[in-house]
């Protein structure tokens, strides 16, 4: 259950207290497979790129969230896109057993989850991906990695005051930051699974 409560006895006072259930982290999943480890995700990305080593590839990671009555859901999307030739994608769900109503806290946690997934792409793993396209770079092959942040700089956007901070965090881990309207992995793909 999403909003399960746990009863616990405070031994000092003898009072029974309700505590929220712990955080829930699902395995990676997509429409084809409901349970994947990160190793399996990485293997799918390798396979996708190896289908056409002359392609222009973007590896994009982004997180979106939705506050519900008893919890907040965070969805992180991983998308490998070959320009003009499709995508392979998956998500991971994290459920926090409380309403996170403070916008800065929620945006910062979204970015932390994105940073966590980006960190799984170690230098060795990134080199494996780069080595797929490397022999074909003079024929237009390319590989880039982007961090999609669900914030915007527009005057009407409530998140505009966080843009500089969040972009700097993404740049500090060596990933090209993208914000709305160019952050579609967070604002569109991940968003559809937060409802």
Output the radius of gyration. 19 Å
The strand order across the widest sheet is: 3-6-5-4-7-8
Structural class: alpha/beta
- Output mean pLDDT: 90
Report the span from N to C terminus: 16 Å
Low-confidence stretches: 1-7
For the largest beta-sheet, the strand count, sense and barrel status come to: 6 strands, mixed
Overall shape: it is globular
Helix content: 25-40%
Structural domain tally: 1
Strand portion, in percent? 25-35%
Instruction: State the order of secondary-structure elements, H for helix, E for strand.
Output: EEEHEEEHHEHEH
Counted by DSSP, the helix tally is 5
Describe the structure in your own words.
The structure is a single chain. This protein is an alpha/beta fold. The chain has one domain. Helix content is 30%, strand content 32%. A six-stranded mixed beta sheet has the order 3-6-5-4-7-8, with helices on both faces. The chain has a two-stranded antiparallel sheet with strand order 1-2. The relative contact order is 0.18.
